[in-house]
Give the backbone structure.
Amino acid sequence: MTQGPRHPLALALPSLLLAGVLFTALDTTGKLLLQEHSLFVVVWARYVGQMLIVTAYVRHRTGPHFWRTRHPRAQLARSALLVVTSGAFYVGLRYLPLAEATAIMFATPLLVVLLSGPVMGERATRGRVVAALAGFLGVLLLLRPGSAALHPAVVVVLGAALCNAFYQMLTTKVAGDGTNTSLFYSTVVGAVVLTLALPWGFAETTLSARDWVLLVAAGLFAAAGHGLMIHAFQLAPPSLLAPFTYVQMLWAVAFGYAVFGQLPDRWSALGMAIIVGSGVLLALLERRRARLGRSFP
């Protein structure tokens, strides 16, 4: 008896979940390197790793003119925002526990909801507003007095989430270029700029054999994670996969405990759960809205 075609989620989910593990491994590696080395070194390794696989993939999918864009200024602005996002996140990661920093970054979709009205002129539905408010309740729990996340560096991570929100909103402005071209610019600009600055970035850096292993690992984790993420979104639509991206929070908690001995207390864990829950709710609402093709209350 022959079996029918498998559901797209069954095909895509293993790649998506493994990508989350690799991204968490990337952040863990970055946090280890940041204990002794500059921010520049870590971000450079991440971008170069991403660029290698993304450029090869995009050229294969799009052809030799994959770099052509109708919106060069918007693409450069997006890329600059992404570099700032990565740098700011790693600044915060130097001081904050891995799980808490990751949870704050997962507030990005909620910021998009709050900013979409004044910035993009979009009307926020009641469901979106409820999800956003619930998510920020989770952030407040996470940043309460006495929490491990209540550190001045949290302002930088919140700034990273805000930059990421603007990056995502600006992505809609370059939709005419196609996903592959935008994906290429998202990685190559940062990689090229950071590589050109390499002589100054490494000027006072001494790397041991262990450090080089970690740098190479960071690049490999970034490249493989993006490759798997791309593969997942080839097999299933983003609206179907979005809720499952929040599984990465589990990996962040596990890696944070296994490598750094950091475990969120119960109130922080509750705050993280609320942030994740509100993000999943928002993803499900957007999926339903896309399926119905209209707004709903």
DSSP finds 13 helices and no strands in the chain. The chain has one domain: 8-292. Residues 30 and 42 are 6 Å apart (CA to CA).
